[in-house]
Amino acid sequence: MTELLGNPWVQRVGFVVGGLVLGIVLEFVVIRRAHKLAERTRFKWDDLVIGSLRGVATTWAGAGGVYLALNVGTPDPLLLSTMRSVLMVLVIGSVVIAGMRVAGGAVEMVSGRAGGAIKSPTLVVNLARVAVGVLGIFIILQTLGINITAAITALGIGGIAVALALQDTLGNLFAGVQIILSKQVRPRDYVRLSSGEEGWVTDVKSRNTTIQTFPDGNLVIVPNSVLASSIVKNFSMPRTALWVSVEVGVSYDSDLEHVETVALDVARRVLREVDGGMPGEDPIIRFHTFADSSVNFEVRMMVREFESQGPMRHEFIKRLHRRFIDEGIEIPFPIRTVVMKGASDTNQAESSTPVS
Collapsing DSSP states into helix, strand and coil, what is residue 312? Predict the structure, then answer.
């Protein structure tokens, strides 16, 4: 037994297996339990940091076991140097991956705190992760003794060639960055493009922006460069509340003062009783047209958000129609008076018609 334990290969295998077992214990016992405890707290940053350590403990413990195994006996110097470099890359790489997770999660948390439940666009999260990843690659190269200056120069020359080959892709990328930085179009905003597409902005990615249409819920994919150059009406800025307009016409025999009182009373009741209305904003009525068969006016009501327009208009029209019937207010049919010419006039017109 003593001879078996003194065997270098047995010791090496023992160190490697021991490191992996320790890593598994740290991963599935210590880190998972710490993550559950962190989820119970109101502080969210601890959840982010602990969650980003998934797999890191196993990598570190396994790398430590391999490193101890390499120092058993007298291994080949070239193999020892190579394996040390590989282990160093693994350890630094795991730290970089954890840093990328923290960077992406931090961007999402900060944007969520600034805009309520709005998540950060995918483009911003990916850019944060890529920045940390590129920095980690440079650190690894510097650790391995590779000249970073030459690598940066090569990347600059190669970047020019890539930029020329991917003009459209890079154009969409920079347009996406411009859209995000301007903060004029954000995820969950309801927008209408000059081309007619409208809906909620769901995400801004590196190449395109996705818009979920209303009410069918389909997705419209818009290239970022097209969105950046389009005329966009944002129904969610500077606030989500907006006015709903309903056109109504009443008979010329109606008492317009009474009509105004009735319409405002119905509008106020709808704003109070229908979900989506803003009863704190008083409705507005404006008479505006002497039409062919009616006096037309517009009723305007404030709703909380864009999708509340339909239910609010639907309920208001039903209640106003019923109230007008009860009050004896007439909504007239279109009426047109037709004057027929007499026979003598017709003959005269026919006789006076020039013949070619």
Answer: helix
3-state secondary structure of 284: strand
Instruction: Report the C-alpha gap between 93 and 344 in whole angstroms.
Output: 102
Helix axes 122-143, 167-182, angle to 10 degrees: 110
For the chain, the domains span 2-169, 185-234, 242-327
Q: Which CATH architecture has domain 242-327?
A: 2-Layer Sandwich (3.30)
User: Is the entire prediction scored with pTM above 0.85?
Assistant: no
Range of lowest pLDDT (57-61, 88-92, 286-290): 57-61
On the 0-12 / 13-18 / 19+ scale of CB atoms within 10 A, 217 is exposed
Instruction: Give burial (CB, 10 Å; 0-12/13-18/19+) of 176.
Output: buried
User: pLDDT class for 320, splitting at 50, 70, 90?
Assistant: very high
The torsion angles phi and psi of 248, rounded to 5 degrees, stand at -135, 150
Q: Within 10 A of 134 (CB to CB), how many other CB atoms are there?
A: 12
Contact 22, 60 (CB under 8 A): no
Distance of CA 187 to CAs 169, 184, 258, 264, 270, Å? 21, 10, 45, 36, 30
Maximum CA extent, the chain: 136
38 phi/psi in degrees, rounded to 5? -65, -35
- H/E element holding 234? strand 232-234
Q: Which whole-number Å values give the CA distances from 295 to 91, 254, 288, 290, 301, in the listed order? A: 79, 9, 8, 5, 20
Fold held by 185-234: SH3 type barrels. (2.30.30)
Mean pLDDT of the chain: 79
Same fold, 185-234 and 242-327: no
Average pLDDT over residues 33-38: 77
The count of residues in the chain is 356
State the distance between the two ends of the chain, measured CA to CA, in whole angstroms: 128
Q: What is the dihedral of CA 180, 182, 184, 188, to 10 degrees?
A: 20
